[in-house]
User: Which sequence fits this backbone?
């Protein structure tokens, strides 16, 4: 009897231990797998977002003149390179370090002591920072001093972007705490880039020959880009990279809303292109390729904030509006305000970034956020918060960038001299030609 | 010896060449050029801004010939390039004082052909 | 004693409950992980397949003339954009909705009520639909009216592609039920595109100057493409994207046959390029770059149907044959049939798509399908089914597309007028130039 | 009583079985998931590395003259295609077959009998082999006979690369056994390509017009590349692909050091670009775009060996040094040694490959390898092994390649004749033009 | 009839065109060219190797006019192209013996305008 | 004053320039052109279809000189461009009536150099 009882007890005991051990092992493995999902998801998404640098470079090269192609490439290469080092040194710390009042991070400089999870998050974040930085090069193309651009790159990646990023994405920022929702960065990334671009374009002034006085009236002249195939390639690369940008922003590889994000992203980009094509058709009498390309990007920027919280139908509308908006906005900045933005960066990233941010307050489906969007009967609560965020970030970025560019302009100088501008920045800034051997009308 | 310089529509080049060949004129030089003549320019637009294109793409043909070949050459060009519409182009004849074949130093009438 | 027994019972009870709870949790997590695998796999694969749009755009731009580059880009951008919206609205429903007799799907319009799994499948499927659509633009390049092309895009993505797709991939289609095997779409995607392209090229007629009467005989003239580097880039992008296309078609991230698919895909593409290079060398006396590029694509199209069921050695042969075939087919369509297909889309996607479909019946290894291929002693059963599928889809697509293009041709008109064609579609259809400033012989 | 006891026993028994069954199932699923992680990770990484072929093609096209663009493309396409088949037939066997004394693999020809894991490893390895092969085309650009290049491609992929690869990466090779560490291939891939490129460039001799006698002194002349935007695009593609190259080299999707690898890779590329830009600025008075692009690649090559074992700060330094080194090295090979390497392949891949290999011995953090690096107080042990490896591989590759190219040169001939070189290889080797219609000064 | 051929700085083309228009000279042909004159070349570098560029980008303008238009045309070109710096360019006047309008075969003075 | 116009092989441009420099002729204009002469075209093919290329790439050189410089210039061009093979090219000499330096309005002989 006793023996039997002991046997039973022992059996049960062994069983207990075994199960426990097995459970422990399994739990460890499951935890590892969870980490592995996030790891490969975020690193692959980061690689895709990195690739967007190529997209920006090609779009900007394509929509400007041949004589500045090498300079644009250098700017795109170096804003990433300098920006990455800056974001490594201080940017990450300002963005994700322990908060000082929800306004700025204060530790983790040089991401010292980072474990694999922090390194993973850093790699995903640095490519976003670089995206914000590189947006500006398009608006400032064809006339900016290379050295000055380098200075700007460091400042935006080290200071401007991370601080407003902290407000929204750090988990402890004041805007995030208010319930401001910007899933993948319509505001955090794109508007920041767009408004810095606006400040830059204003301080720089237009390219020579862009606005000409005819009978006392300044009229806008076209300065056609030199390579539409590359511009189109750039847009396809950006769209491709955007799957990393938006889908990756789930921040987790086991988040099953990834497919929702992918669908809304695709639909908005599509209707963005359609919207811009139709608008350009109506406005100019012909479907304009470079505008349609901008339209796809506008749709993508527009959906970025709300991609996870709006319905597919919602995304169709957001994209369509963005596509229409971008054409009108490009015209407005060019013909009314006479601000020269060669690639439409301000309209695509600034204006459509705000539209996307606001759209969250209109189209958020019930249950996704604390408040549903206005169109789903959630009232104007979310809308108000979104507007507040958009305005705050605008103010922060625009004022700081205006200051920065003005200081650069007064000190090292922001603009190349007019002879160099006419000749092209490739020769004057880099002493080379981008299309050696090709016969090109350089007077254009 | 004369130099016949013609500015024609790019897409008429093939027809002009055929006509020249028919008249056994095989030597010529062809250059890309932009022209502004009676033909009105047209309007392109780029990103919604109008571009007035008044320098149109043209082909410049230079043909050096001996005097007796001037008429056949001019006629052949006209035959090939004429559509009757503005933009068909123009032919100029200028004098050549000397012509030298680099290969063997031949000069004058024999060198031209 | 009693107490002891109770203790034991309690212990055992606890153990039971604990284990069960733990087992429940674990099972849930494992199920979530399974979903997560499929999610990230299919979304990443979809992104890769999306990127193939850039590949198609670059190949087509590169193999046509500079004066039509902007138009081609617009067609590629808009066939995706319009196609995606069409596939969202009705295409998916026709393809994957509840079947009506195995011929057409009948519900899920606007993918209403889709959960994350359906959204995931939609994003993976829409990029396939867009691939089929975009194949056509190459064959119809340099002479098609833009508006008419838009109409075509919507119809193929909304109706033609989804219905034959339903037959094969819906799980309940009549061809699929017969045992027709097309792993990633040699027929479903590529042949559909290729045969629609053929219909388009026929209805359109050749480009001006392509076939010239000399002594009463029509001879084919070359109209060289203007940008080989971009064409090559396009092929590399397509090959890259094909890893998403084929490997993603496991439809599951935990399917370990992924590597098999990747290997056969790589080998077939390689021997496709080799086959075309050698054939062109023999035929024309020199290894022709644009043909070798076509060869790589031919190998890829050829392996797409059988990639999961043929051996690596089988894939070498399939690719090689495809590479040889594509050169002969291009010559046949051009010189014998005098059908003008500027980029060889009919040969690459139509002809090699059929070859790949048939090849399943020849090279399927035993055990992979119900019947092994002919060369593995499985008899002609599978071969017969494959041929039936290829013929049925040909008939369906070719007739419908012929009808469609004829109707368009009689109503809105399919072709630009000859002055516009000579001048180039960039100026006439879009009022812009693609390479502004470059000096280009536009008479070519 | 008895019944109760029996009940208890039964309950416990059931419990035991149930738990065991559940544990079995779970373990199977977990094992499957582990395989799935590795599968999707390596296949996606392989796709990224494959895409680097496009990067190499664009860099090489961009940095050479327009009249050879089609030839370069053909070389890049065919070295992959022929190389893949060669690596399939024998390369893999020599690299990963059962070892003969740590020097060469001896079985698994045609990867016969490979299961999904071997196929997975093959697909990941073949793209590395192709990378090594394709590096050479840049250094030999603009003057090499196409046929001869094909022969070379097969030999390097079938023999040269796999054998030195066996020494280091097979797990049983003599260098690996000594503790030589080359995480992702600074030596195994890049130096192999770089030194073969050096041998090729030496045997070939410089392009016509590259070195001109002026007053009895040979001086170096610039032969500018024709397409900087494509060269830049190529570099961005390479950088993008490098995330597959380096991160994929964890060989496991559940290895959480992936993020560490991604971070060091990014930082080194950035400081590489910065280093080269600054060095070129100092040396030539202006920030040189093509050198800065080379700098980014140099940083990437430099970090490839040590990416997993050096700290982020270490990677910053490694990249910076690589960036400086590449400029000095390009100048040295060009101006001092007068070896004509149009794209700087020898400097980027050979020299910086060695630097990266050595850097492991300097910067390896304690705990990562058996010995820490010199700068971390680990002494010179690791440094010595790294140097030994670098030298051994140099000797193996350089001598064999020299032999190979000399034999080719004496038999089929390595170089096109001078008329063809002047005219351009596109016309002479392939009978076509790459930029048909564009007006190009072909005398450059 | 004379042919006026001018080599000017590329970026002065617009100004020159404006001046010509002011003088009611609308017909011209414009070609891309490279020029070597008193203007020194400049130095570019490529990958650290110096390139001496002594063929500078220029625009070649060909304008055929009747005798009485020679002076206004030359003056207009000078007005538009002159900056007073080396590199401003040069104008050559050569005789034309005949001029034919392809469209309608008109020749001589009436054809030129 | 004469205008010397030469059509030469593109890859001979460098040699021609060297010869001209030796003779202290530094001013010239260089244009890309396509030429059809005694030299036969060649055959390219594209996607298996033969292309007969009979317009070959040439360089057009325009050099305006004073009378006494005509011979040295022509000789220098021949010296630099001659290989003795068909395709070497041709030189045409035409009269110039006037030459104006835009920078300072100088005309005639002094303006040309
Ligand atoms: N007076 C001129 N000087 C120089 N080039 C001219 C002149 N007249 C015509 N051309 C060239 O000829 C081309 C055709 O001229 P166009 O006005 O179309 O001829 P038409 O007078 O017969 O209509 C122009 O684009 C221009 O290149
Ligand atoms: N003698 C000449 N023959 C041919 N072209 C000339 C001649 N002189 C000048 N040119 C052309 O005019 C351009 C301007 O010449 P440049 O030396 O700058 O003029 P300037 O003597 O007024 O300074 C040159 O680049 C060249 O294209
Ligand atoms: N009669 C001509 N008119 C115009 N250009 C000519 C003429 N003859 C020769 N050329 C130009 O000179 C180039 C060289 O002519 P080619 O026939 O090769 O000279 P050669 O008669 O000495 O062999 C031609 O390609 C063409 O551009």
Assistant:
């Amino acid at each position: 009897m006793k023996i039997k009882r002991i046997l039973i007890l022992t059996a049960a005991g062994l069983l207990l231990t075994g199960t426990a051990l097995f459970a422990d092992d399994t739990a460890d493995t499951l935890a590892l797998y969870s980490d592995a999902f996030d790891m490969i998801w975020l690193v692959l998404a980061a690689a895709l977002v990195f690739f967007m640098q190529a997209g920006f470079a090609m779009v900007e090269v394509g929509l400007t003149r041949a004589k500045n192609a090498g300079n644009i490439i250098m700017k795109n290469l170096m804003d990433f390179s300098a920006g990455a080092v800056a974001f490594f040194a201080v940017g990450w710390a300002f963005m994700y370090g322990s908060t000082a009042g929800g306004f700025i991070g204060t530790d983790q400089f040089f991401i010292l002591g980072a474990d694999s999870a922090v390194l993973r998050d850093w790699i995903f974040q640095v490519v976003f920072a670089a995206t914000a930085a590189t947006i500006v090069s398009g608006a400032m193309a064809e006339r900016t001093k290379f050295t000055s651009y380098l200075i700007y790159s460091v400042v935006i990646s080290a200071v401007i972007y991370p601080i407003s990023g902290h407000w929204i994405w750090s988990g402890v920022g004041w805007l995030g705490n208010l319930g401001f929702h910007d899933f993948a960065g319509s505001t955090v990334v794109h508007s920041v880039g767009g408004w810095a671009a606006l400040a830059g374009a204003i301080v720089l002034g237009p390219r020579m020959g862009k606005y000409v006085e005819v009978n006392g009236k300044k009229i806008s002249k076209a300065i056609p880009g030199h390579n539409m195939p590359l511009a189109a390639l750039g847009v396809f690369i950006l769209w491709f990279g955007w799957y990393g940008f938006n889908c990756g922003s789930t921040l987790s590889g086991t988040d099953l809303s990834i497919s929702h994000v992918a669908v809304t992203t695709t639909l908005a980009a599509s209707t963005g292109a359609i919207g811009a094509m139709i608008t350009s058709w109506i406005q100019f009498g012909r479907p304009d390729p470079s505008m349609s390309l901008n339209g796809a990007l506008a749709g993508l920027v527009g959906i970025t904030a709300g991609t996870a919280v709006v319905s597919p139908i919602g995304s169709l509308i957001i994209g369509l509006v963005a596509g229409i908006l971008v054409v009108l906005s490009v015209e407005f900045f060019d013909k009314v305000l006479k601000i020269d933005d060669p690639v439409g960066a301000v309209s695509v990233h600034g204006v459509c970034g705000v539209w996307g941010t606001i759209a969250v307050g209109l189209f958020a489906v019930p249950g996704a956020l604390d408040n549903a969007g206005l169109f789903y009967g959630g009232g104007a609560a979310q809308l108000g918060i979104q507007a507040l965020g958009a305005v705050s970030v605008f103010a922060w970025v625009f004022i700081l960038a205006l200051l920065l560019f003005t200081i650069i302009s007064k000190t090292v100088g922001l603009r190349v001299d007019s002879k160099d501008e006419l000749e092209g920045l490739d020769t004057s800034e880099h002493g080379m030609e981008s299309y050696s051997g090709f016969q090109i009308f350089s007077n254009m | 010896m004369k130099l016949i310089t013609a500015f024609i529509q790019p897409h008429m080049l093939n027809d002009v060449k055929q006509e020249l060949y028919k008249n056994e004129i095989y030597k010529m030089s062809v250059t890309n050029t932009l022209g502004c003549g009676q033909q009105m320019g047209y309007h392109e637009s780029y990103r919604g801004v109008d571009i007035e294109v008044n320098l149109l793409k043209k082909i410049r043909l230079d043909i050096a010939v001996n005097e007796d070949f001037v008429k056949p050459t001019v006629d052949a060009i006209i035959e090939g390039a004429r559509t009757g519409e503005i933009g068909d182009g123009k032919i100029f004849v200028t004098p050549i004082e000397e012509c030298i074949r680099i290969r063997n130093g031949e000069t004058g009438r024999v060198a031209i052909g």
